[in-house]
Automatic annotation (TrEMBL):
It is an enzyme of class 2 (transferase). One of its GO terms (biological process) is chorismate biosynthetic process. This is 3-phosphoshikimate 1-carboxyvinyltransferase. It comes from the Bacteria. The active site is at residue 321. Catalyzes the transfer of the enolpyruvyl moiety of phosphoenolpyruvate (PEP) to the 5-hydroxyl of shikimate-3-phosphate (S3P) to produce enolpyruvyl shikimate-3-phosphate and inorganic phosphate.
Length: 440
């Protein structure tokens, strides 16, 4: 007989009996991944030095710093680890870039690399090598850039930079990811002719993230015309070096706010912007639709729940990165849910529709994939191992399920470091203020 050693890779999610008022916590959420990586890219392309404050430090954002340094930008840490000082330089090639599993790195860096003088090779994790890339590679080719991808349209590939990109007009099908649009737009003020980009696909996910791209470009003095649907026109020009502060990551706030609904308590997130392009801001309405109460006052988002969760029918195409959190709540609800408009989640860190359906079913729940989403029918759940597929949001979804269901173990919870390295500490801290402490 062999006795299995305890698996160090399994994190037992703390469980809490719902008791109104028991959970009462404030959670300070670090900076937005999406804003951090956009500000870093623009700073490296700027005509003068800049500073990014309140930056997220995580695998995805540190990989972005590494990529921009490899292309010649000088980036140094400030007095706080969340401050970066960026001194742009002539972009140089002969570089190999590790994209990890970061969509923002693999989709935002190619157009920057195309401006470098020399060869730049991009590669990433095994899971990154299956994420869609072809539309952005073909888009760059249409703007005069030579790329060698062995005809696969996937990582790894080599960009043969000549020090400039002609630019001009290009059609791109961005139905698999908004990042194809953002990745071409971000560098386009540095193209000789600027850029006119037209999205040609049947659907366009994550429009708020494209609006975010346009907003940060305009803040940097770039002229962007977005007055026609699905067409963006960028005038060539200088990118201003700036001193910017990153908003907290509202999508990463999601699992903590969701905990208020599961536990029947209150969670507060300070630093919540009064207006933002982050799709994570939709959490307030989503949690309200699921039976919670959300209230923003003096920059603090407060969510209160009763412990009873209502299912919902919702189109999440604008905020696909919230789907794992909403799916976990739906599995704990009293009525069925339907999540729609998120077929593109099949190309995220993993096939998230398959992963969510499999893992909810593994715990005794009922979750079925549809052509563009999930149908989740509540059933009593039991403990078990939640597999995470190197997906940070699968790990946080597991934590939400474990808050209600005893015996949930999250495999490779360290994968949360993709965007939130301190996740388990923050989760424990959120629960530590409880009268009796979390029940492991
Ligand atoms: O531009 C960005 O920062 C992002 C865009 C979205 O990508 P998709 O449009 O591929 O969903 C989002 O899901 C991702 O987490 C971040
Ligand atoms: C889809 C996500 O990430 P990425 O930036 O790698 O696409 C996400 O964070 O939910």
């Amino acid at each position: 007989m062999t006795i299995a050693a305890p698996d160090a890779d399994l994190w037992t999610a703390p469980t809490l009996d719902p008791a109104p008022g028991q959970l009462d916590a404030q959670v300070d959420v670090p900076g937005s991944k999406s804003l951090t990586n956009r500000y870093l890219v623009l700073a490296a392309l700027a005509g003068s030095p800049g500073t990014v404050r309140g930056a997220l430090r995580s695998r995805d954002t540190d990989l972005m710093v590494g990529a921009l340094r490899a292309l010649g930008a000088q980036i140094t840490e400030g007095a706080e680890a969340s401050t970066w000082h960026i001194t742009p330089a002539t972009l140089t090639g002969d570089a190999s870039i590790d994209c990890g599993l970061a969509g923002t790195v693999m989709r935002f860096i190619p157009a920057v690399a195309a401006l470098a003088d020399g060869e730049v090779t991009l590669d990433g994790d095994a899971g990154a090598r299956v994420r869609p890339m072809a539309p952005i590679l073909d888009g760059l080719r249409g703007l005069s850039v030579r790329i060698d991808d062995g005809g696969r349209g996937l990582l790894p590939f080599t960009i043969h930079g000549t020090g400039s990109v002609r630019g001009g007009s290009v059609d791109v099908d961005a139905s698999a990811s908004s990042q194809f649009v953002s990745g071409l737009l971000l560098a386009s003020a540095r193209f000789d002719q600027g850029l006119t980009l037209r999205h040609t696909g049947p659907t366009l996910p994550s429009l708020p993230h494209i609006d975010m791209t346009v907003a940060v470009m305009r803040e940097a003095g770039i002229v962007v015309d977005s007055s026609r649907p699905a067409i963006w026109q960028v005038r060539p020009g200088t990118v201003a070096g700036r001193d910017v502060r990153v908003e907290p990551d509202l999508s990463n706030a999601g699992p903590f706010l969701a905990a208020a609904l599961v536990a029947g308590g209150t969670v507060r997130v300070p630093g919540w912007p009064s207006s933002t392009t982050q799709p994570g801001a939709m959490m307030a309405d989503l949690l309200t639709a699921m039976g919670g109460h959300a209230h923003l006052a003096d920059g603090v988002m407060t969510v209160t729940g009763t412990g009873e969760i209502t299912g919902l029918d919702v189109d999440l195409h604008e905020a696909g990165e919230l789907a794992p959190t909403i799916a976990a709540l739906a599995a704990l609800a009293t009525t069925p849910s339907r999540l729609r408009g998120i077929a593109h989640l099949r190309g995220h860190e993993t096939d998230r529709l398959a992963a969510l359906a499999t893992e909810i079913t593994r715990l005794g729940g009922q979750a079925e994939q549809t052509s563009d989403g999930l149908v989740i029918t509540p059933r009593p759940l039991h403990g078990g191992v939640v597999h995470t597929y190197h997906d940070h949001r699968m790990a946080t979804a597991g934590a939400i399920l474990g808050l209600r269901v005893p015996g949930v173990q999250v495999e490779n919870v360290a994968t949360t470091a993709k965007t939130l390295p301190g996740f388990t500490r923050m989760w424990d801290q959120m629960l530590s203020g409880l009268t009796d402490g979390p029940v492991a």
